[in-house]
Write a structure and sequence with these properties.
The protein is of the alpha+beta class. The chain folds into 2 domains: 91 residues, 2-Layer Sandwich (Phosphorylase Kinase, domain 1), CATH 3.30.200.20; 193 residues, Alpha-Beta Complex (Aminoglycoside 3'-phosphotransferase, Chain: A, domain 2), CATH 3.90.1200.10. The chain contains 8 helices and 10 strands. It has a 5-stranded antiparallel beta sheet, with helices on both faces.
Length: 292
């Protein structure tokens, strides 16, 4: 297990930086102060190497454009991420502020505006590390965890496939997981920023908006978020109205898939919470079906 002292030592050796303070903020994250600069260090699982390096590439590009995002700090050898015991270590410059509240209409406006602006800023960005988004293949035995799970996942996947095949969608660089905690609002300045570009790939930009809508509780609760995105982003209203409900159902199906895997194979300590989350996704899918 990584400790404060170990992370401090690794940053000093691998980044050639003096670290004055190193405090864990989670099991995989540390807040550092180095040479008068606030930094965040994160330990990523080895299986996320490709996504971690690609995300750092996107973040550095956005930072160079003047976009408000936590800038990656390259290690002494020029790498974005360095293999260490337990995974890959990255360091970024900290951005001030608190995470967004997905239920707050004003925070939703900041959320949609920043996501839309990021999509627009990345319109011409290309990089060999960026691949196409991998779509869910619903053929695992874990989907038999409950009789309704596999049919629900299959139906959402089929609808998303029809959408991407038959509709002309706006494609670009996806964040992949635009959860409210990766956005920051600084109450002192009113400025917003992104903490990271989490799981980048190319795909329909409406997927990112659908994921954000899912985190905000659904189409009706996320009205301010959607309006703000439409004002700032490159996707038009007609496309949003047609694509987001379908891709929201698909996002919920992805959640079902992950939860079913955890319940079936991972042996999680809190299976009751996983079952509750599985049922909540089922309810959300049913509600979505009645409103679209």
């Amino acid at each position: 297990m990584a400790t404060d002292d170990r992370i401090r030592s690794q940053v000093q050796v691998l980044w050639h930086r003096t670290v004055d303070r190193c405090v864990a903020v989670s099991a995989t994250g540390w807040r550092l102060r180095s040479e008068g600069v606030e930094l965040w260090a994160t330990l990523h699982p080895p299986v996320q190497e490709a996504a971690t390096r690609a995300g750092s590439t996107v973040a550095e590009h956005l930072f160079r454009l003047g976009f408000p995002i936590a800038a990656p700090v390259r290690a002494a050898d020029g790498s974005y991420a360095v293999p260490v015991d337990g995974g890959l270590l990255t360091v970024v410059r900290a951005v001030p502020g608190r995470p967004l509240d997905p239920a707050d209409p004003v925070d939703q406006q900041w959320w949609g505006d920043l996501l839309g602006a990021a999509h627009r800023a990345l319109a011409d960005f290309v990089h060999p590390r960026l691949g196409r988004r991998a779509w869910l293949i619903p053929d695992g035995g874990h989907l038999s965890v409950a009789g309704w799970v596999r049919p629900a996942v299959l139906a959402a996947g089929a609808a998303a496939t029809r959408l991407t095949v038959t509709d002309r969608l706006t494609y670009g660089v996806l964040h992949g997981d635009p959860a409210p905690e990766v956005f920051r609002i600084d109450p002192d300045t009113g400025r917003t920023a992104l903490v990271e570009w989490r799981t980048p790939a190319t795909g329909p930009l409406a997927y990112d908006l659908a994921a954000a809508v899912g985190y905000a509780g659904g189409l009706d609760p996320a009205g301010e978020l959607i309006d703000a995105y439409l004002a700032a982003g490159p996707v038009g209203r007609d496309e949003v109205e047609a694509a987001v409900p379908v891709l929201l159902a698909y996002w919920l199906a992805e959640r079902l898939d992950r939860l079913a895997r955890r319940i079936t194979w991972a042996g999680t300590a809190d299976a009751r919470a996983d079952w509750a989350a599985l049922d909540a996704a089922r309810v959300a899918l049913a509600a979505l079906a009645t409103t679209t």
